[in-house]
Design a protein that fits this description.
This protein is of the alpha/beta class and 314 residues long. 37% of the residues lie in helices and 19% in strands. It has 2 domains: 83 residues, no CATH class; 216 residues, Rossmann fold (3-Layer(aba) Sandwich), CATH 3.40.50. The chain contains 11 helices and 11 strands. Strand 9 and strand 10 form a beta hairpin.
Length: 314
């Protein structure tokens, strides 16, 4: 896939119907040979559209008008490249807890949650948030996470969490204004509801900070997993994280996590964690796959806004 193809796919499959601004930017970049050439000078893992757009937002650049965006990138490329070199996409979208919650609630309670790629740890609080699935509310709370669900009767109660910990190559701190500014920059321009959700989730995390460990997803996972308390079901989970790892390292992670005690919950693109025999997704938009212990359960949207269940009942 060429660089232009990558930006077209992002615009058409991920941003379309979700962010008109980012759809316009992605398609504009795909047509601009100068900008594509600049992006090509970045390391391979630093060329994705949402990282470029987030860095421009962080630096105060325009992201609503494609012409202004392209001009800004050309004029400010050294600063953009420098910032991109020290950043990774750490969206830490608390809305994904609406996808995790039904699976977590069905496992033996209480749970010891361990998130790989935890960022600031905002997805470690599925027991503290409120949920609305269609017209059904499961726990009132802030933030209130809304998710459209097809094919699943959601459980009536949130999971019980006895321990929560995260592993990340660069943990973020919700008490740091600079770290929160980066999380905010990664939210797509029109998504005021997600910015409000970030603030509410950050307040939850700041009131009871999780254990966040700086480390490698493969090398440091066993030691952190061993710290989970006896009597709690260990659940290792991750969402939109493994694409950061090279394919060989990804395979090592999957082999490792399958061998740990407890359960493994993943929300990843089927291109990143393949599953045999997947049904067709519900529409042409980009979908991830929610899986439990390697068994695919549902198609999900990237920010937790929708889930189409096709797997066995929980």
């Amino acid at each position: 896939m060429t660089m232009a193809d990558t930006y077209v796919e992002f615009g058409v499959r991920e941003a379309r119907g979700v962010s008109a601004a980012y759809e316009r930017l992605a398609l504009a970049v795909a047509r601009d040979e100068k900008i594509l050439g600049l992006v090509a000078t970045l390391p391979e893992g630093k060329r994705q559209p949402n990282l470029l757009f987030g860095v421009v937002r962080l630096l105060g650049g325009p992201v609503e008008d494609p012409d202004a965006f392209l001009a800004y990138v050309r004029a400010n490329w050294p600063a953009i490249a420098a910032e991109t070199s020290v950043r990774i996409t750490q969206t830490n979208e608390a809305g994904r807890c609406a996808l995790l919650m039904p699976v977590l609630a069905a496992l033996p309670q209480p749970l010891a949650l361990l998130e790989v790629g935890a960022s600031a740890g905002l997805c470690l609080y599925p027991d503290r948030y409120g949920y609305r699935y269609g017209d059904r509310v499961v726990r009132h709370g802030e933030p209130l996470l809304e998710c459209s669900v097809q094919g699943l009767e959601v459980p009536p109660n949130v999971p019980e969490i006895a321990w929560r910990a995260g592993l990340d190559v660069n943990p973020l701190d919700v008490a740091s204004p600079a770290d929160v500014a980066w999380l905010d920059a990664l939210i797509w321009p029109e998504h005021a509801h997600r910015r409000a959700r970030l603030r509410a989730a950050a307040a939850v995390a700041a009131a009871d900070p999780p254990l966040l460990v700086r480390g490698d997803a493969v090398d440091d996972l066993p030691a952190l997993a061993a710290r989970a308390p006896a009597g709690a079901t260990l659940v290792v989970f991750h969402s939109s994280v493994l694409y950061h790892l090279p394919a060989a390292r990804r395979a090592e992670f999957v082999e490792l996590v399958r061998g740990l005690p407890g359960h493994w919950v993943s929300i990843e693109s089927p291109d990143v964690v393949p599953h045999a025999g997947l049904p067709e997704p519900p529409d042409p938009a980009h979908h991830n796959v929610l899986a439990l212990d390697g068994v695919p359960l549902a198609w999900t949207r990237g920010h937790g806004q929708a889930m189409t269940w096709f797997g066995p009942k929980l």
